[in-house]
Amino acid sequence: xxxxxxxxxxxxxxxxxxxxxxxxxxxxxxxxxxxxxxxxxxxxxxxxxxxxxxxxxxxxxxxxxxxxxxxxxxxxxxxxxxxxxxxxxxxxxxxxxxxxxxxxxxxxxxxxxxxxxxxxxxxxxxxxxxxxxxxxxxxxxxxxxxxxxxxxxxxxxxxxxxxxxxxxxxxxxxxxxxxxxxxxxxxxxxxxxxxxxxxxxxxxxxxxxxxxxxxxxxxxxxxxxxxxxxxxxxxxxxxxxxxxxxxxxxxxxxxxxxxxxxxxxxxxxxxxxxxxxxxxxxxxxxxxxxxxxxxxxxxxxxxxxxxxxxxxxxxxxxxxxxxxxxxxxxxxxxxxxxxxxxxxxxxxxxxxxxxxxxxxxxxxxxxxxxxxxxxxxxxxxxxxxx
Amino acid sequence: xxxxxxxxxxxxxxxxxxxxxxxxxxxxxxxxxxxxxxxxxxxxxxxxxxxxxxxxxxxxxxxxxxxxxxxxxxxxxxxxxxxxxxxxxxxxxxxxxxxxxxxxxxxxxxxxxxxxxxxxxxxxxxxxxxxxxxxxxxxxxxxxxxxxxxxxxxxxxxxxxxxx
Lengths: 386, 164
What we know:
- Chain B: Belongs to the ATPase B chain family.
- Chain B: This is ATP synthase subunit b.
- The complex is a heterodimer.
- Chain A is mainly alpha-helical.
- Helix content of chain A is about 60%, strand content about 10%.
- Chain A folds into two domains: about 5-30 and about 165-380, no CATH class; about 80-160, no CATH class.
- The radius of gyration of chain A is 24 Å and the shape is globular.
- Chain B is built from two helices and no strands.
- The mean pLDDT of chain B is about 90.
- The chains are: A mainly alpha, B mainly alpha.
- Chains A and B meet through strand 8, helix 5, helix 6, helix 7 and helix 8 of A and helix 1 of B.
């Protein structure tokens, strides 16, 4: 277990996540003063936002827009004339399933363009699909927005192939093609040394097996290898794909909390379904400590069952999102200073940060995999080392 | 906050897609890949073990050869040594034999010479006595008329005899 001692302490893992979280927020906060808050969220709804103040660049809105999910895959340009790849919108409404292409919104995400299907009217407001109001509000938006910027309209269940879902499926297809081909290469060159792409992948597979699975899971490692390998390559590939600025990259998939939630829930389920009596005994009736301590520790340990996957979820989300925000914020400097001379500085920094992000992309995939292996290992090991 | 807003669509899709990915990769990629890697590692381990065994066998054979060589060498040395002592013995023997033989011959020759000398002396003595008798006879014949002369003659003869 030569990695596990680093991550063994939940405290370290959680404090790391917390520190990254803080870093992420502080970054977000520091982005606010730069925008001078004229077009920040509050003012956005007011009529005065238009006109002279629109000259100011809304850095927060810009960044959040870019790291958020979207119903179309934006490629180039702004507004009506922009080029974007339409994606299917799939809605589950009270009247059944409704599907149409996102191009029917005509690049509108301000709730101004209504799409009618099955006698229902839908609008895209900040990349969320709402049932349109009967009449537009003061800004021509067919939504009811209250003072706290909360939308009152009904939201149908949205199962659209959004930018993130598209990337999800795309990456899955790419991974399947790549690894099935690698598997075929193994079948074709049976017992021989790896060649080509196979030899690129094999060290990584061996790394996961020898440095992640075996130290944490011991003899039982083989059953968990498919999950560890899949999760590692899936996260790694998507982290890197997210760094590619043009289609089909650029979606902030692994920096989306919904995806990291799903991944950590799967780890949580595997951990707790596979857990043996030894593990549960350590949670509810810690051996080797006095009875009052046992009673005191039980709720803490029970909480630990949930904090472990939550830390997993937030760590990946925060790291990848922070990377995207950093890159976008640096690029925004050009627009904040309204000077082309700042561009070289921005670009140098963005390239530098992108290099780091490539490293972070690997490290986060690695950490997620190591922690998954560690959690499963703790749950299935026969004899505790306490 | 927008970043944390749950999206049921993405949750469902990512669950479905990820589990499908996991299933497909596990069945069609990881299983054959891991099996192939394991098989190859087994093969490499076996090959290494075999190589190690072969190496040990080789070392054993080399050691054996070395032993044989050593043995052969020592045997050869022994044979050579034996041959040498044998030769020395023969030479020494021959030498002593030759010496004794020579000594014997010399002795024989010496005895022969002695004998010859004795014989010659005896003969000489005989001849001398005969000669002296002859001389005496002749002297006696020629000088018997003169007494003094006879006496002188006898004296001279005796003197000569003594000289001999």
